[in-house]
Amino acid sequence: MQVHKYDVVIVGAGGAGMRAAIESGQRAHTAVLTKLYPTRSHTGAAQGGMCAALANVEEDNWEWHTFDTVKGGDYLVDQDAAEVMAKEAIDAVLDLEKMGLPFNRTPEGKIDQRRFGGHTRDHGKAAVRRACYAADRTGHMILQTLYQNCVKHNVEFYNEYYVLDLITVEEDATREDGTTYKQKRVAGVVTYDLASGELHIFQAKSVVFATGGLGKIFKTTSNAHTLTADGMALAYRAGIPLEDMEFVQFHPTGLAGLGVLLSEAARGEGGILRNSDGERFMERYAPTIKDLAPRDIVARAMAQEVREGRGAGPNKDYVYLDLTHLEPEHIDAKLPDITEFARTYLAVEPHTEPVPVFPTCHYAMGGVPTNIKAEVLQDNEVVVPGLYAAGEVACVSVHGSNRLGTNSLLDINVFGKRAGIYAAEYASTAEFVELPEAPETFVTEQLEMLRNSSGDQRVATIRAELQDTMDLNMQVFRSEESIREALDKIYELKGRYQQITVQDKGKRFNLDLLEALELGFLLDMAEVMTVSAMHRKESRGGHYREDYPDRDDENFMLHSMLYKDPGFETEGVKGIRFDTKPVIFTRYEPMERKY
Amino acid sequence: MSTPTVEKEPASKIDLAESGDGAGAVQQFDITLKVRRYDPERTEDAWWDEWNLTMFGTDRVLDALHKVKWDVDGTLTFRRSCAHGICGSDAMRINGRNRLACKTLLKDLDTSKPIIVEAIKGLPVEKDLIVDMEPFFQSYREIMPFMINSSPTPTAERVQSPEERQRFDDTTKCILCAACTSSCPVFWTDGQYFGPAAIVNAHRFIFDSRDDAGDMRLEILNDREGVWRCRTTFNCTEACPRGIEVTKAIQEVKTAILTRSL
Q1: Within this chain, do residues B211 and B120 fall inside the same structural domain, yes or no?
Q2: What positions belong to coiled-coil segments (chain A) (predicted)?
Q3: What is the ipTM of this complex?
Q4: What's the average model confidence in pLDDT over A229-250?
Q5: Within this chain, do residues B253 and B186 fall inside the same structural domain, yes or no?
Q6: Rounded to whole angstroms, how far apart are CA atoms B86 and B161?
Q7: CB–CB of A209/A384 below 8 Å?
Q8: What percent of chain A has pLDDT over 90?
Q9: Position B159 pLDDT exceeds 90
Q10: A504 touches chain B (CB under 8 A)
């Protein structure tokens, strides 16, 4: 067993991980472990922009941005975190520009800005131009720029190393009031080297999780094949709670039938949605900002149009994104990639034809609970020393129950940077936590079980059935009945998962084996998400319950906290303990959310 | 102020042309997928496998590979991630041409003959369609692919006009998939050659008005393994899934070396 020792180990090399690495790498002995080559990370698929109140093209300030973020999240946002994000957004954009990011420019040579859903002037008066962008490939430019700067700073990468376990220990600890509790501490991670099939232990004083999201729980998704909830599942198995997992964002404009993302920038640049009657239906749902309402509202409106028979196409199961009233040169200049997607994958010419679109699973608002220093919490108050999380895997919570467009690219930069700085600072004074004996045992047994299984269940079949049931029952409309159906199916699939077999028994580049492990993560996280959705008997942001269509602040203005705990049962599911955590309010009282 | 975003206010309601095509009306057809396999754990030599598959009109080569891996033979091994041409994981040789498997629709290939899929050339094959990318990234790192600017850092952004920004726009699109470099006959015979992708990424900084180190990069590419190895065969430009004019970028770097003032 090879054991490596670093002050800081960062898991994941997307935007959050590499932003952390740039900070940590200059302050402490740092390694980045990533299951993909860094430039393959899904940050690169983000399109539209990154909001910051630079006020380069019209009046704006970070307080308005904070308000929009809080309101966009339907008031489930921790307002201290939203303030940090909106305030530090300005430097986050300028940092990237100085690192070399080629933003689009105004005629005066400043960073240009455009409109984006839910971002408004003066607390909702009108749409504001706040999104800094590089055509419709802003995420690509961020990922490339961060990787370039990692090369510049000689950041050490371990490419195609899959982290398969988080090593933690527990110590008895005493609170100020004399009561005792178990304090978790992080000792390192167990990784699997894809090329050789060997396990490596990385011992570290600080571990930063920046592993991204969970889109592959659903069938229709904008997410990459590799977004399989790894980090969330590993934290959860290590006894760390998961927060607000019921809140999943469905992006309104996925290419119909495929889920490939068409940026909200299409609507920011003037594109509109139409039903089969050619009607601009968002005028009915959000009279003030119409097509630029937040994503949860637009996605539900689209699904509602389809339900009421106004869907387009042979199966009447999508609506149209109409760009035909825009100048072709303007479309080509500002939205080149997404128009190419429409041409390549659906053979539709956006200059002259409306593009078939339907909501696609896009983003997990919930995740591993953190505070504004990106420190991971083991319960509502206690921090796990040395453990950090940033980006989609984390729930800080700046997105509440619905994330605004562009705020994810912002989140990874602001909290990725914070995680890198605080992780390195912690490592400069902390001691290594002694590794438990044979920390790889759990992973070794899991791999042996999969390699030697004589079961008859196939990974792809179980995964497809999971994705089908989640699309059917846990998408933009949910009810007790549909959630129960999903839970029953997940229970069945978890049983069958015990009987899966992998065909590839080799050691080199065994992706067959890793897909089997990833399916285990997906099943666990689908269960947590669904239990959390059952518990929340209200509608808020991305979570819409047909049986409880209103927001219920009296009973549910609380974060959901789910723990893996064998002694408990929640919503009929064994092994899960449910708790809540108060939402942090600073300046904004909850109001009705209208646009 | 920049140009207004909306040219004209769209109508609340329009007449849509009779539609019905687009997504939904999907046709099925049969293909034969033929893949060059290699796994040194099983046997020293490479071999070919063939599968007959029923696919849909919207399916890509990646979907066919997944169908084999998920339903038939789990040992078939290839990299992929985003599945829509952005991450650069799945560059491979399809019917003799470098492409991304996730951007190549089956219906656009000749399905009357087997569709032939091989690993990209010029990099060591590790298993099936997976190659060792390290030599490729090594060349990339050597051209100093990061902005170097020694003037005092301004508090706000560095100013750059839209025209200056446009000058290097094409080469910012690179996703480092290696389709260009591994389509280059010079690279096949001389693995020391920097290759088109590294030059594209050097171009992206050489022509960025904010960067100070253009001369250093030009000096690196003036090496015997640098731009002068390029024989202008245009394979790279044809292979680029992002539509970058790779050969033109290489020519611009050559010209810059000849005309620079040192």
Answers
A1: no
A2: none
A3: 0.96
A4: 98
A5: yes
A6: 27
A7: no
A8: 99
A9: yes
A10: yes
